[in-house]
Each structure stands twice: as C-alpha cells, then as structure tokens.
Specification:
The N and C termini lie far apart (62 Å). The protein is 28% helix and 34% strand. The protein has 3 helices and 10 strands; from the N terminus they run H-E-E-E-E-E-E-E-E-E-E-H-H. The strands form 3 sheets. Strands 1-2-6-4 form a 4-stranded antiparallel β-sheet, with no helix packed on it. Strands 5-3-8-9 form a 4-stranded antiparallel β-sheet, with no helix packed on it. Strand 1 and strand 2 form a beta hairpin. The chain is of the alpha+beta class.
C-alpha cells in the first residue's frame, strides 16, 4: 500500500521548483538550439545528392554575437560539395531568432555514413570566451544503396478516373437507399 505524501512537502517542492525556474528564466543569456537534417536525392544519372540543412534557434533571452557554424565532418573521399559551404558565420542572432544554412553534397562511395553534429560557436557579451553548442545528429545515411522501387498508389489514376468513381458510388448508394425498406417502415409493420 502506498504511503501518501504530506501536502506540506508537496507545496514546498512546488515552491522550490517555481523559484528555480524563475531564477533560470531571469538569467540574461542566449540558449542555442540547432537542428540538422539531411535528405537523400537520387538523380536519374545514378548519382545521389545529400541535401543538408541546419536551423539555429536562439531560445534564450539575449542576443548571441559572432555566431559561426562549422559542419566539416563530411570526408572529401566520400563526398563532393555541389553547392553551398560547410561553414558560415553571422554577426548576431537575436533572442527568439532563427538562422538557417544549407548545402548540397554528392556521394561518391557506396555504404553507410554516420555524421557528427555540427558545431555552433557564439559570443556572449558578458563572457570573453566563445560558447559552443552542438546540433542534433542525423540518422545514418545509406549512400548509393540499391533501393527496391515502392509500389505507390498512382495519383494520376485518381485524377483521371476519380470523378467517374465518385459518380458511380453516389448512384449505387442512392439506388440502395431507395430500394431498401426503411427501419421506420419495418417497425410499424411489426406493431400490426
């Protein structure tokens, strides 16, 4: 049998939680959250491009200055840069702001690839040292893998025959409703 906690202890814990959360929210520092995502795009020529985008959010209460992004964990023997840069920098990231960066790579070697998180460095006006944040990691990428074509329902068939199917369905439903006796008529026949 569970022993109930005294109400006083619960109220003290809630008050402590309130004071800790208010103290943390009152601190005037940027809080950087970065989301990294990568998608594979198979070209008709057989090559495969990796589109990488990194979104950097400032969830803190002050501005981050001298924000720099570096994502150099893509080996040159496995990937060629098709467009964009693996690093970039911005002057500032305001509180509640968003910065985005994207680049595209071409895979040269077949196999699984595990990428490390991108590194974001920024400066806080109250501290001399640069602060560092990491992005989220991406799922493993299976570069140039043999993929079995999926049987997707072809939307062109719906576009071509959709109106015909809906008209036939409405006519069949109407005929069914007219030809079947209603439940009220059945109930009145049972009472007689």
């Amino acid at each position: 049998m569970a022993i109930p906690m005294p109400k006083a202890l619960i109220s003290v814990l809630l008050a402590l939680l309130f004071f800790v959360s208010s103290a943390l929210s009152a601190s005037d520092v940027p809080f950087i959250v970065a989301h990294k995502k990568a998608t594979l795009n198979r070209l008709r020529s057989g090559a495969e491009h990796v589109s990488v985008s990194i979104d950097i959010y400032n969830q803190g209460s002050s501005t981050a200055y001298d924000v720099s992004l570096l994502d150099d964990h893509w080996p040159q023997d496995m990937f060629d840069v098709v467009s964009g840069n693996l690093s970039t920098s911005w002057e500032r990231l305001d509180a509640g702001g968003l910065l985005s960066h994207s680049f595209e790579l071409e895979g040269k070697v077949k196999g699984m690839f595990y990428s490390a998180p991108a590194v974001i460095k920024f400066r806080i006006p109250t501290k001399a040292a640069l602060q560092e944040a990491l992005s989220t990691p991406i799922m493993p990428l299976d570069i140039l893998a043999e993929r079995i074509p999926e049987n997707k329902l072809d939307l062109r068939l719906f576009a071509q025959y959709g109106s015909l199917i809906s008209v036939i369905s409405i006519v069949v439903l109407f005929v069914y409703l007219v030809s079947s006796p209603s439940s009220a008529a059945k109930a009145s026949k049972k009472k007689r």
